[in-house]
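Bumping with the actual sequence this time:
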Amino acid sequence: MTTVDQDLLPEPLPPERRGWRTADLARASVVALTVWFGLQLAWSVSSLLFLVFLATLFGLAVGSGVDVLERFRIRRGIAAALIVFGTLGAIGGVLAWTAPTLIEQGKQLQTEFPDAIHKLQTWIDSKRTGLVGTLIKSAATPPPLAGAAPVATPVTVGGATTGARTPTATQVMRQAADSIAASPSEAIKKRITEGLGGASRYLFSFVSNTLAAAAAFVLLVFLAMYIGAEPEVYRGWLLSVVPATSRAQVRLVLAEIATVLRKWLVTQMIAMVVIGVVSMIVLLLLGVKAPFALAFMAGLFEFIPTVGPVLSAVPAVLMAFVDSPEKALAVLIAYWGIQFLENNLLIPYLMRGEMDLPPAITLVAQSLMTLLFGFVGLMVAVPLTAAVLVPLRMMAERENAREKALRRTGRLPDIARAEVDPDTVMSEADSGPTLGTT
Protein backbone atom coordinates (compact mmCIF):
# COMPACT_ATOMS: atom_id res chain seq x y z
CA MET A 1 0.00 0.00 0.00
CA THR A 2 1.40 3.42 -0.98
CA THR A 3 1.99 5.92 1.81
CA VAL A 4 1.73 9.66 1.25
CA ASP A 5 3.71 12.25 3.17
CA GLN A 6 1.25 14.15 5.33
CA ASP A 7 3.24 17.37 4.86
CA LEU A 8 2.18 17.42 1.20
CA LEU A 9 -1.51 17.42 2.07
CA PRO A 10 -3.39 20.72 2.53
CA GLU A 11 -4.49 21.82 5.98
CA PRO A 12 -8.01 20.61 6.90
CA LEU A 13 -10.72 23.23 6.88
CA PRO A 14 -12.35 24.19 10.17
CA PRO A 15 -15.85 22.79 10.73
CA GLU A 16 -17.53 26.13 10.11
CA ARG A 17 -15.91 26.38 6.64
CA ARG A 18 -16.86 22.88 5.43
CA GLY A 19 -19.56 22.53 2.80
CA TRP A 20 -21.32 25.16 0.72
CA ARG A 21 -22.84 28.10 2.55
CA THR A 22 -25.50 30.47 1.21
CA ALA A 23 -22.89 33.16 0.58
CA ASP A 24 -20.74 30.68 -1.35
CA LEU A 25 -23.68 29.67 -3.55
CA ALA A 26 -24.59 33.30 -4.22
CA ARG A 27 -20.98 34.17 -5.05
CA ALA A 28 -20.65 31.18 -7.41
CA SER A 29 -23.93 32.10 -9.12
CA VAL A 30 -22.78 35.69 -9.66
CA VAL A 31 -19.45 34.51 -11.07
CA ALA A 32 -21.16 32.03 -13.41
CA LEU A 33 -23.62 34.66 -14.67
CA THR A 34 -20.81 37.18 -15.13
CA VAL A 35 -18.76 34.71 -17.14
CA TRP A 36 -21.81 33.78 -19.23
CA PHE A 37 -22.72 37.37 -20.07
CA GLY A 38 -19.07 38.16 -20.70
CA LEU A 39 -18.81 35.33 -23.22
CA GLN A 40 -22.02 36.44 -24.91
CA LEU A 41 -20.72 40.01 -25.19
CA ALA A 42 -17.35 38.82 -26.50
CA TRP A 43 -19.09 36.68 -29.12
CA SER A 44 -21.23 39.60 -30.32
CA VAL A 45 -18.23 41.91 -30.69
CA SER A 46 -15.69 39.27 -31.74
CA SER A 47 -14.67 41.22 -34.85
CA LEU A 48 -13.78 44.27 -32.76
CA LEU A 49 -11.86 42.12 -30.27
CA PHE A 50 -9.83 40.53 -33.07
CA LEU A 51 -9.14 43.98 -34.50
CA VAL A 52 -7.89 45.15 -31.11
CA PHE A 53 -5.72 42.04 -30.83
CA LEU A 54 -4.15 42.71 -34.25
CA ALA A 55 -3.62 46.35 -33.28
CA THR A 56 -1.91 45.22 -30.07
CA LEU A 57 0.26 42.84 -32.09
CA PHE A 58 1.43 45.61 -34.41
CA GLY A 59 1.61 48.06 -31.50
CA LEU A 60 4.18 45.84 -29.77
CA ALA A 61 6.40 46.04 -32.83
CA VAL A 62 5.90 49.82 -33.00
CA GLY A 63 6.81 50.07 -29.31
CA SER A 64 10.19 48.43 -29.94
CA GLY A 65 10.98 51.03 -32.58
CA VAL A 66 9.78 53.81 -30.31
CA ASP A 67 12.16 52.64 -27.58
CA VAL A 68 15.06 52.99 -30.02
CA LEU A 69 14.04 56.46 -31.22
CA GLU A 70 13.51 57.62 -27.64
CA ARG A 71 17.26 57.31 -27.08
CA PHE A 72 17.70 60.15 -29.59
CA ARG A 73 15.44 62.39 -27.47
CA ILE A 74 12.41 61.97 -29.76
CA ARG A 75 9.10 62.05 -27.93
CA ARG A 76 7.29 58.72 -27.91
CA GLY A 77 4.13 60.05 -29.58
CA ILE A 78 6.11 61.61 -32.43
CA ALA A 79 8.28 58.50 -32.75
CA ALA A 80 5.21 56.25 -32.98
CA ALA A 81 3.68 58.46 -35.70
CA LEU A 82 6.98 58.49 -37.64
CA ILE A 83 7.25 54.70 -37.51
CA VAL A 84 3.62 53.99 -38.46
CA PHE A 85 3.25 56.54 -41.24
CA GLY A 86 6.81 55.95 -42.43
CA THR A 87 6.10 52.23 -42.77
CA LEU A 88 2.85 52.90 -44.62
CA GLY A 89 4.66 55.34 -46.91
CA ALA A 90 7.40 52.81 -47.65
CA ILE A 91 4.85 50.12 -48.45
CA GLY A 92 2.91 52.55 -50.63
CA GLY A 93 6.09 53.55 -52.44
CA VAL A 94 7.03 49.95 -53.18
CA LEU A 95 3.50 49.23 -54.41
CA ALA A 96 3.56 52.36 -56.61
CA TRP A 97 6.94 51.34 -58.03
CA THR A 98 5.80 47.80 -58.80
CA ALA A 99 2.18 48.69 -59.65
CA PRO A 100 2.63 48.81 -63.47
CA THR A 101 4.23 45.37 -63.52
CA LEU A 102 1.70 43.92 -61.09
CA ILE A 103 -1.25 45.36 -63.03
CA GLU A 104 0.09 44.12 -66.37
CA GLN A 105 0.83 40.64 -65.06
CA GLY A 106 -2.44 40.60 -63.15
CA LYS A 107 -4.28 41.16 -66.44
CA GLN A 108 -2.17 38.43 -68.02
CA LEU A 109 -3.02 36.14 -65.14
CA GLN A 110 -6.70 36.88 -65.59
CA THR A 111 -6.47 36.22 -69.33
CA GLU A 112 -4.46 33.02 -69.07
CA PHE A 113 -6.46 31.49 -66.24
CA PRO A 114 -9.30 30.19 -68.48
CA ASP A 115 -6.67 28.67 -70.78
CA ALA A 116 -5.16 26.92 -67.81
CA ILE A 117 -8.55 25.48 -66.89
CA HIS A 118 -9.04 24.38 -70.51
CA LYS A 119 -5.62 22.69 -70.55
CA LEU A 120 -6.55 20.95 -67.31
CA GLN A 121 -9.78 19.73 -68.94
CA THR A 122 -7.90 18.40 -71.94
CA TRP A 123 -5.40 16.60 -69.75
CA ILE A 124 -8.18 15.07 -67.66
CA ASP A 125 -10.03 13.87 -70.78
CA SER A 126 -6.85 12.19 -72.02
CA LYS A 127 -6.50 10.25 -68.76
CA ARG A 128 -9.81 8.37 -68.75
CA THR A 129 -8.15 4.99 -68.41
CA GLY A 130 -5.69 3.69 -65.88
CA LEU A 131 -5.09 4.71 -62.31
CA VAL A 132 -5.34 8.45 -62.99
CA GLY A 133 -8.69 8.02 -64.72
CA THR A 134 -10.03 5.96 -61.84
CA LEU A 135 -9.00 8.62 -59.34
CA ILE A 136 -10.54 11.38 -61.46
CA LYS A 137 -13.84 9.52 -61.81
CA SER A 138 -13.98 8.80 -58.10
CA ALA A 139 -13.31 12.48 -57.35
CA ALA A 140 -15.90 13.68 -59.84
CA THR A 141 -18.69 11.21 -58.96
CA PRO A 142 -21.14 12.82 -56.51
CA PRO A 143 -21.94 10.85 -53.35
CA PRO A 144 -25.18 8.81 -53.38
CA LEU A 145 -28.19 10.52 -51.85
CA ALA A 146 -29.50 8.55 -48.92
CA GLY A 147 -33.21 7.90 -49.12
CA ALA A 148 -33.59 9.55 -52.54
CA ALA A 149 -37.17 9.32 -53.75
CA PRO A 150 -37.97 8.11 -57.28
CA VAL A 151 -38.41 10.88 -59.79
CA ALA A 152 -41.29 10.55 -62.24
CA THR A 153 -40.32 11.14 -65.88
CA PRO A 154 -43.26 12.58 -67.84
CA VAL A 155 -44.19 10.78 -71.10
CA THR A 156 -46.35 12.46 -73.74
CA VAL A 157 -49.14 10.20 -75.17
CA GLY A 158 -51.59 11.66 -77.65
CA GLY A 159 -50.86 15.19 -76.57
CA ALA A 160 -51.32 14.35 -72.89
CA THR A 161 -48.47 14.19 -70.43
CA THR A 162 -48.45 11.26 -68.01
CA GLY A 163 -45.94 10.00 -65.51
CA ALA A 164 -45.64 6.62 -67.18
CA ARG A 165 -42.05 5.92 -66.09
CA THR A 166 -40.58 6.39 -62.63
CA PRO A 167 -36.82 5.74 -62.52
CA THR A 168 -35.40 4.68 -59.20
CA ALA A 169 -32.61 6.42 -57.31
CA THR A 170 -30.16 3.78 -58.58
CA GLN A 171 -31.05 4.54 -62.18
CA VAL A 172 -30.65 8.27 -61.57
CA MET A 173 -27.21 7.73 -60.07
CA ARG A 174 -26.24 5.44 -62.96
CA GLN A 175 -27.25 8.12 -65.46
CA ALA A 176 -25.18 10.69 -63.56
CA ALA A 177 -22.21 8.33 -63.52
CA ASP A 178 -22.56 7.72 -67.28
CA SER A 179 -22.58 11.45 -67.96
CA ILE A 180 -19.47 11.89 -65.83
CA ALA A 181 -17.74 9.00 -67.59
CA ALA A 182 -18.52 10.66 -70.91
CA SER A 183 -16.89 13.92 -69.85
CA PRO A 184 -15.11 13.76 -66.48
CA SER A 185 -13.37 17.06 -67.12
CA GLU A 186 -16.70 18.90 -67.11
CA ALA A 187 -17.51 17.48 -63.68
CA ILE A 188 -14.05 18.37 -62.39
CA LYS A 189 -14.37 21.88 -63.85
CA LYS A 190 -17.77 22.30 -62.21
CA ARG A 191 -16.42 21.18 -58.87
CA ILE A 192 -13.40 23.50 -59.11
CA THR A 193 -15.63 26.44 -60.07
CA GLU A 194 -18.08 25.77 -57.26
CA GLY A 195 -15.24 25.25 -54.78
CA LEU A 196 -13.45 28.45 -55.76
CA GLY A 197 -16.70 30.38 -55.69
CA GLY A 198 -17.59 29.05 -52.27
CA ALA A 199 -14.09 29.73 -50.95
CA SER A 200 -14.20 33.26 -52.27
CA ARG A 201 -17.55 33.92 -50.61
CA TYR A 202 -16.36 32.29 -47.40
CA LEU A 203 -12.85 33.71 -47.10
CA PHE A 204 -13.19 37.15 -48.63
CA SER A 205 -16.70 38.17 -47.65
CA PHE A 206 -15.24 40.72 -45.25
CA VAL A 207 -14.13 42.96 -48.15
CA SER A 208 -17.65 43.27 -49.57
CA ASN A 209 -18.22 46.43 -47.57
CA THR A 210 -15.50 48.86 -48.65
CA LEU A 211 -16.42 51.50 -46.10
CA ALA A 212 -16.26 49.06 -43.18
CA ALA A 213 -12.91 47.72 -44.38
CA ALA A 214 -11.48 51.23 -44.68
CA ALA A 215 -12.76 52.19 -41.23
CA ALA A 216 -11.28 49.01 -39.73
CA PHE A 217 -7.92 49.76 -41.35
CA VAL A 218 -7.86 53.33 -40.01
CA LEU A 219 -8.82 52.09 -36.53
CA LEU A 220 -6.09 49.44 -36.70
CA VAL A 221 -3.45 52.02 -37.67
CA PHE A 222 -4.29 54.50 -34.91
CA LEU A 223 -4.70 51.82 -32.23
CA ALA A 224 -1.29 50.39 -33.11
CA MET A 225 0.21 53.89 -32.95
CA TYR A 226 -1.33 54.71 -29.56
CA ILE A 227 -0.40 51.33 -28.04
CA GLY A 228 3.16 51.59 -29.35
CA ALA A 229 3.53 55.13 -27.98
CA GLU A 230 2.33 54.38 -24.43
CA PRO A 231 2.23 50.64 -23.74
CA GLU A 232 2.73 51.13 -19.98
CA VAL A 233 -0.53 53.10 -19.72
CA TYR A 234 -2.64 50.26 -21.12
CA ARG A 235 -0.67 47.64 -19.21
CA GLY A 236 -1.34 49.61 -16.01
CA TRP A 237 -5.08 49.70 -16.67
CA LEU A 238 -5.01 45.95 -17.27
CA LEU A 239 -3.11 45.33 -14.03
CA SER A 240 -5.49 47.57 -12.07
CA VAL A 241 -8.11 44.80 -12.04
CA VAL A 242 -5.60 42.18 -10.79
CA PRO A 243 -5.19 41.60 -7.03
CA ALA A 244 -2.00 43.08 -5.58
CA THR A 245 -0.68 39.65 -4.57
CA SER A 246 -0.85 38.40 -8.19
CA ARG A 247 0.36 41.48 -10.06
CA ALA A 248 4.01 40.46 -10.12
CA GLN A 249 3.20 37.12 -11.74
CA VAL A 250 0.74 38.69 -14.20
CA ARG A 251 3.33 41.33 -15.11
CA LEU A 252 5.83 38.57 -15.95
CA VAL A 253 3.22 36.75 -18.06
CA LEU A 254 2.37 39.91 -19.99
CA ALA A 255 6.05 40.64 -20.63
CA GLU A 256 6.62 37.11 -21.93
CA ILE A 257 3.52 37.28 -24.15
CA ALA A 258 4.73 40.60 -25.58
CA THR A 259 8.15 39.09 -26.34
CA VAL A 260 6.69 36.03 -28.06
CA LEU A 261 4.18 38.02 -30.14
CA ARG A 262 6.80 40.58 -31.16
CA LYS A 263 9.18 37.81 -32.19
CA TRP A 264 6.42 36.03 -34.12
CA LEU A 265 5.41 39.17 -36.00
CA VAL A 266 8.96 40.07 -37.01
CA THR A 267 9.53 36.48 -38.10
CA GLN A 268 6.40 36.54 -40.25
CA MET A 269 7.38 39.82 -41.90
CA ILE A 270 10.84 38.54 -42.78
CA ALA A 271 9.37 35.25 -44.01
CA MET A 272 6.91 37.10 -46.26
CA VAL A 273 9.73 39.01 -47.97
CA VAL A 274 11.95 35.94 -48.29
CA ILE A 275 9.19 33.72 -49.66
CA GLY A 276 8.12 36.39 -52.15
CA VAL A 277 11.66 36.90 -53.47
CA VAL A 278 12.50 33.18 -53.63
CA SER A 279 9.18 32.37 -55.33
CA MET A 280 9.83 35.06 -57.95
CA ILE A 281 13.30 33.64 -58.69
CA VAL A 282 11.95 30.09 -58.97
CA LEU A 283 9.07 31.13 -61.25
CA LEU A 284 11.45 33.11 -63.48
CA LEU A 285 13.80 30.13 -63.76
CA LEU A 286 10.92 27.78 -64.61
CA GLY A 287 9.52 30.23 -67.18
CA VAL A 288 6.06 30.54 -65.62
CA LYS A 289 3.94 33.43 -66.87
CA ALA A 290 3.19 36.39 -64.58
CA PRO A 291 5.98 35.57 -62.09
CA PHE A 292 5.89 38.93 -60.26
CA ALA A 293 2.15 38.77 -59.62
CA LEU A 294 2.35 35.16 -58.45
CA ALA A 295 5.34 35.91 -56.21
CA PHE A 296 3.48 38.89 -54.72
CA MET A 297 0.58 36.58 -53.88
CA ALA A 298 2.97 34.04 -52.33
CA GLY A 299 4.53 36.67 -50.07
CA LEU A 300 1.17 38.17 -49.12
CA PHE A 301 -0.48 34.83 -48.27
CA GLU A 302 2.57 33.85 -46.20
CA PHE A 303 1.07 35.86 -43.32
CA ILE A 304 -1.56 33.09 -43.04
CA PRO A 305 0.38 30.03 -41.78
CA THR A 306 -0.45 26.55 -43.09
CA VAL A 307 -3.32 27.66 -45.35
CA GLY A 308 -1.69 30.66 -47.05
CA PRO A 309 1.02 28.72 -48.92
CA VAL A 310 -1.62 26.35 -50.32
CA LEU A 311 -3.76 29.25 -51.55
CA SER A 312 -0.76 30.86 -53.26
CA ALA A 313 0.38 27.60 -54.89
CA VAL A 314 -2.92 26.91 -56.70
CA PRO A 315 -2.75 29.79 -59.25
CA ALA A 316 0.97 29.17 -59.84
CA VAL A 317 0.37 25.51 -60.65
CA LEU A 318 -2.56 26.36 -62.92
CA MET A 319 -0.51 28.95 -64.79
CA ALA A 320 2.23 26.39 -65.32
CA PHE A 321 -0.41 24.02 -66.73
CA VAL A 322 -0.79 26.44 -69.65
CA ASP A 323 2.59 25.25 -70.91
CA SER A 324 2.63 21.60 -69.83
CA PRO A 325 1.67 19.25 -66.98
CA GLU A 326 5.36 18.61 -66.41
CA LYS A 327 5.98 22.29 -65.67
CA ALA A 328 2.99 22.31 -63.33
CA LEU A 329 4.50 19.36 -61.46
CA ALA A 330 7.84 21.19 -61.28
CA VAL A 331 6.15 24.28 -59.83
CA LEU A 332 4.31 22.14 -57.27
CA ILE A 333 7.56 20.48 -56.19
CA ALA A 334 9.32 23.86 -56.04
CA TYR A 335 6.62 25.37 -53.81
CA TRP A 336 6.75 22.33 -51.55
CA GLY A 337 10.53 22.61 -51.32
CA ILE A 338 10.31 26.30 -50.44
CA GLN A 339 7.86 25.58 -47.62
CA PHE A 340 10.00 22.68 -46.38
CA LEU A 341 13.11 24.86 -46.15
CA GLU A 342 11.12 27.65 -44.51
CA ASN A 343 9.60 25.44 -41.82
CA ASN A 344 12.83 23.59 -41.03
CA LEU A 345 15.52 26.25 -41.49
CA LEU A 346 14.25 29.82 -41.81
CA ILE A 347 11.56 29.93 -39.10
CA PRO A 348 13.60 28.03 -36.44
CA TYR A 349 16.61 30.27 -37.16
CA LEU A 350 14.56 33.46 -36.80
CA MET A 351 12.80 32.27 -33.65
CA ARG A 352 16.09 31.06 -32.08
CA GLY A 353 14.85 29.13 -29.10
CA GLU A 354 11.58 30.99 -28.59
CA MET A 355 8.35 29.03 -28.24
CA ASP A 356 7.75 26.75 -31.24
CA LEU A 357 4.07 26.00 -31.73
CA PRO A 358 3.31 22.28 -32.05
CA PRO A 359 1.94 21.63 -35.57
CA ALA A 360 -1.09 19.67 -34.33
CA ILE A 361 -2.13 22.43 -31.92
CA THR A 362 -1.63 25.05 -34.64
CA LEU A 363 -3.76 23.15 -37.15
CA VAL A 364 -6.56 22.51 -34.65
CA ALA A 365 -6.56 26.17 -33.58
CA GLN A 366 -6.73 27.37 -37.19
CA SER A 367 -9.56 24.99 -38.04
CA LEU A 368 -11.57 25.92 -34.95
CA MET A 369 -11.09 29.68 -35.37
CA THR A 370 -11.98 29.48 -39.07
CA LEU A 371 -15.17 27.55 -38.39
CA LEU A 372 -16.23 29.95 -35.65
CA PHE A 373 -15.13 33.34 -37.00
CA GLY A 374 -14.24 32.88 -40.68
CA PHE A 375 -11.25 34.50 -42.36
CA VAL A 376 -10.51 36.95 -39.52
CA GLY A 377 -10.36 34.03 -37.08
CA LEU A 378 -7.90 32.27 -39.38
CA MET A 379 -5.62 35.33 -39.40
CA VAL A 380 -5.41 35.63 -35.60
CA ALA A 381 -5.42 31.90 -34.82
CA VAL A 382 -1.64 31.40 -34.67
CA PRO A 383 -0.61 34.50 -32.67
CA LEU A 384 -3.57 34.03 -30.34
CA THR A 385 -2.56 30.41 -29.76
CA ALA A 386 1.01 31.52 -29.06
CA ALA A 387 -0.28 34.03 -26.51
CA VAL A 388 -2.44 31.41 -24.77
CA LEU A 389 0.42 28.89 -24.59
CA VAL A 390 2.74 31.36 -22.82
CA PRO A 391 1.06 31.19 -19.37
CA LEU A 392 0.54 27.45 -19.77
CA ARG A 393 4.24 26.98 -20.42
CA MET A 394 5.16 29.17 -17.44
CA MET A 395 2.82 27.14 -15.21
CA ALA A 396 4.45 23.94 -16.45
CA GLU A 397 7.94 25.30 -15.72
CA ARG A 398 6.88 26.38 -12.23
CA GLU A 399 5.34 23.00 -11.39
CA ASN A 400 8.35 21.14 -12.77
CA ALA A 401 10.66 23.28 -10.63
CA ARG A 402 8.47 22.49 -7.61
CA GLU A 403 8.62 18.77 -8.42
CA LYS A 404 12.43 18.85 -8.62
CA ALA A 405 12.57 20.70 -5.28
CA LEU A 406 10.36 18.04 -3.69
CA ARG A 407 12.65 15.34 -5.06
CA ARG A 408 15.72 16.99 -3.58
CA THR A 409 14.11 17.22 -0.15
CA GLY A 410 12.79 13.65 -0.33
CA ARG A 411 9.18 14.77 0.20
CA LEU A 412 7.89 13.30 -3.06
CA PRO A 413 5.86 10.06 -2.73
CA ASP A 414 7.40 6.92 -4.17
CA ILE A 415 4.63 6.54 -6.73
CA ALA A 416 5.40 10.03 -8.11
CA ARG A 417 9.13 9.39 -8.29
CA ALA A 418 8.53 6.76 -10.96
CA GLU A 419 7.11 9.35 -13.33
CA VAL A 420 8.96 11.08 -16.14
CA ASP A 421 11.71 13.51 -15.18
CA PRO A 422 10.57 17.19 -15.26
CA ASP A 423 13.35 18.12 -17.69
CA THR A 424 12.11 15.43 -20.05
CA VAL A 425 8.57 16.80 -19.80
CA MET A 426 9.68 20.28 -20.87
CA SER A 427 11.91 18.99 -23.66
CA GLU A 428 9.04 16.94 -25.04
CA ALA A 429 6.73 19.96 -24.85
CA ASP A 430 9.00 21.93 -27.16
CA SER A 431 8.17 20.81 -30.70
CA GLY A 432 9.98 21.61 -33.91
CA PRO A 433 13.70 21.93 -34.64
CA THR A 434 15.62 24.79 -33.07
CA LEU A 435 18.87 26.31 -34.29
CA GLY A 436 21.01 28.33 -31.92
CA THR A 437 20.36 29.31 -28.33
CA THR A 438 19.01 32.34 -26.61
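The C-alpha coordinates above came from a reply further down the thread. The longest strand covers residues 160-165.
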